[in-house]
């Protein structure tokens, strides 16, 4: 009996000792951070199309790092931007709102009289209030000077261009514009900012070729410097927006022309971010979101991307303009190698990050929905079942609900009636008169077969949804002002 008691005491003592030692052992490289404060990285490309990545059918160049990111995370097939143009899309991503709710549309020029209102809350501001370190690298395009730059919108640090890399007084062949009659002569020098200060001017295509590497190095530095605290990194690449340029280490290496070189350098950049996370022991506690601001700018031909077979591209309300690739990875939280065919959007990132990071919600109304249920593959999850396609200043051009898309009568830019450009030069633009049409995106994702006569009940249902958006956000096509819109900031 005494022997049994002794053995029992020995086992209990050993069990307690194991627990004690386990509790106080040195933390591993991916441990030591609270689960409620994961790092968040958003990598946003510029004008990259749905079909540009190898894991979305892109070829003949290779994107192995992005293939790996997709294999380790979730790849979305019905992911939408807020609007198919630079500024509007970025405003949507950072605020969780349709851009027209914020009085934002189009692509700001260096002299634009409006900017994202500082009274709007960005993802950076929400996370900064939670104690996150916030950094942005790359293209901003929401206001070209103080007090509308990233440091005034929630970011602790910033390196990048205030707007698109083609907004400079340089011609499509890379030579300075000398003719005062040329519209491009109006552009001021293209500034590179560090914080609120201009540190350099981007003057040549050689300067452009350094942007991807410069952004990548700064992003990796930010990760290393903030590895001991939760951080939010917004890496918004200027490429593959024209003028495209690749550094010496990638130029001519893809065997698929300059666009292929640029895509392979972008892939390298993502690989460097992934490698830095791994080296710093941050992989398991970091959510990476990779996507694009809109579809490809098809008028530039071989210097433009691939719409993946969807209709049209950037600057339109067709699928090729708004449906973009999206990959999300968070080991242990998002199952590796999964595909999400449900609808989701960049406007859904804000509320999802709010949920994940347990932060306060934005004070003002937003349009995004929490898609955590999709990321965790909860049964029958479908948080976003409808989407409104706005373009121009505030024109409602379409409504999607489930598999159905109702296209409303409008005038649309089209790439189908003109020849594309080549080697950095654009083609000419054309417009098209669009009639009321209904498309079944499940069987006809290319929007080629109008089935409104077969489904009048669906047309009625989606028309009612369109009226709801018109009342809330307005619609220039029907001369309606929305009751839920807010003003942009007036730049002085």
Task: Write up what this structure looks like.
- The protein is of the alpha/beta class.
- It folds into 2 domains: 39-385, Alkaline Phosphatase, subunit A; 389-487, 2-Layer Sandwich (Arylsulfatase, C-terminal domain), CATH 3.30.1120.10.
- 25% of the residues lie in helices and 19% in strands.
- It has 11 helices and 18 strands.
- The protein has helices spanning 2-24, 64-71, 86-95, 123-128, 205-208, 211-225, 257-279, 319-322, 349-357, 372-375, 456-473; strands spanning 39-45, 74-80, 114-115, 133-138, 157-160, 190-194, 197-202, 231-236, 286-292, 326-329, 338-345, 386-391, 395-401, 404-407, 410-414, 430-434, 437-440, 489-490.
- It has a 10-stranded mixed beta sheet with strand order 7-6-5-4-8-1-9-10-2-11.
- Strand 12 (386-391) and strand 13 form a beta hairpin.
- Helix 2 (64-71) packs across helix 7 and helix 6 (211-225) packs parallel to helix 7.
- The longest helix is centred in the first third of the chain and has 23 residues, at 2-24.
- The protein is globular, with a radius of gyration of 24 Å.
- The termini are far apart.
- The model is unreliable at 1-34 (pLDDT under 50).
Number of strands: 18
In percent terms, what proportion of residues is strand?
A: 15-25%
Most strands sheet: 10 strands, mixed
Q: What is the CATH C level class of the largest domain, in words?
A: Alpha Beta
Cα end-to-end separation: 90 Å
| Helix-residue proportion | 25-40%
Query: Which class do the helix and strand fractions yield?
Result: alpha/beta
- CATH fold call of the largest domain: Alkaline Phosphatase, subunit A
List unreliable stretches of 5+ residues: 1-34
In the sheet with the most strands, the strands line up as 7-6-5-4-8-1-9-10-2-11
Oligomer: single chain
Task: Identify the CATH architecture of the largest domain.
Answer: 3-Layer(aba) Sandwich
On the 0-100 scale, what is the average pLDDT?
A: 93
State the fourth-level CATH superfamily of the largest domain. Alkaline Phosphatase, subunit A
H/E element order? HEHEHEHEEEEHHEHEHEEHHEEEEEEHE
């Amino acid at each position: 009996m005494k022997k049994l008691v002794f053995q029992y005491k020995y086992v209990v003592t050993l069990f307690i000792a194991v627990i004690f030692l386990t509790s106080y052992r040195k933390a591993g490289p991916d441990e030591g951070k609270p689960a409620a404060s994961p790092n968040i990285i958003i990598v946003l490309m510029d004008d990259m199309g749905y079909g540009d990545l190898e894991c979305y059918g892109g070829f003949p160049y290779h994107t192995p790092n992005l293939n790996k990111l997709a294999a380790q995370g979730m790849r979305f097939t019905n992911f939408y931007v807020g609007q198919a143009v630079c500024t509007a899309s970025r405003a949507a991503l950072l605020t969780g709102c349709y851009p027209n709710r914020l009085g934002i549309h189009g692509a700001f020029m260096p002299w634009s009289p409006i900017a994202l209102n500082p009274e709007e809350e960005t993802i950076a501001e929400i996370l900064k209030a939670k104690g996150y370190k916030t950094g942005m690298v790359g293209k901003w395009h929401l206001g070209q000077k103080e007090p509308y730059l990233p440091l005034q919108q929630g970011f602790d640090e910033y390196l990048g261009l205030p707007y698109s890399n083609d907004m400079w007084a340089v011609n499509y062949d890379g030579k300075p514009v000398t003719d005062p009659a040329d519209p491009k002569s109006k552009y001021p020098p293209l500034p590179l900012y560090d914080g609120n200060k201009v540190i350099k001017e981007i003057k040549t295509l050689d300067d452009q070729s350094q942007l991807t590497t410069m952004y990548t190095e700064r992003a990796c530095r930010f990760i290393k410097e903030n590895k001991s605290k939760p951080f939010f990194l917004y890496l918004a690449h200027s490429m593959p927006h024209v003028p495209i340029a690749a550094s010496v280490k990638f130029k001519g290496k893809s065997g698929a022309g300059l666009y292929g070189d640029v895509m392979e350098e972008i892939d390298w950049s993502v690989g460097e971010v992934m490698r830095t996370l791994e080296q710093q022991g941050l992989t398991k506690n970091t959510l990476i979101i990779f996507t694009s601001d809109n579809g490809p700018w098809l008028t530039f031909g071989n210097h433009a991307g691939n719409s993946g077979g969807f209709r049209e591209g950037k600057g339109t309300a067709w699928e090729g303009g708004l449906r973009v690739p999206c990959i999300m990875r968070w080991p242990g939280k998002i199952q590796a190698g999964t595909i999400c065919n449900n609808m989701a959007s960049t406007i859904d990132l804000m509320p999802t990050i709010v949920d994940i990071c347990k932060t306060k919600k934005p004070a003002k109304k937003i349009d995004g929905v929490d898609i955590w249920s999709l990321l965790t593959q909860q049964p029958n999850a479908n948080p976003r079942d409808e989407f409104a396609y706005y373009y121009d200043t505030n024109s409602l051009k379409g409504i999607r609900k489930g598999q159905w898309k109702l296209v409303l009568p409008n005038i649309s830019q089209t790439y189908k009636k003109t020849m594309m450009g080549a080697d950095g030069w654009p083609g000419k633009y054309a417009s098209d008169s669009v009639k009321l049409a209904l498309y079944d995106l499940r069987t006809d994702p290319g929007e080629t077969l109008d089935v409104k006569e077969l489904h009048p009940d669906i047309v009625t249902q989606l028309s009612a949804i369109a009226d709801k958006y018109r009342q809330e956000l307005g619609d220039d096509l029907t001369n309606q002002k929305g009751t839920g819109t807010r003003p942009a900031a007036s730049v002085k």
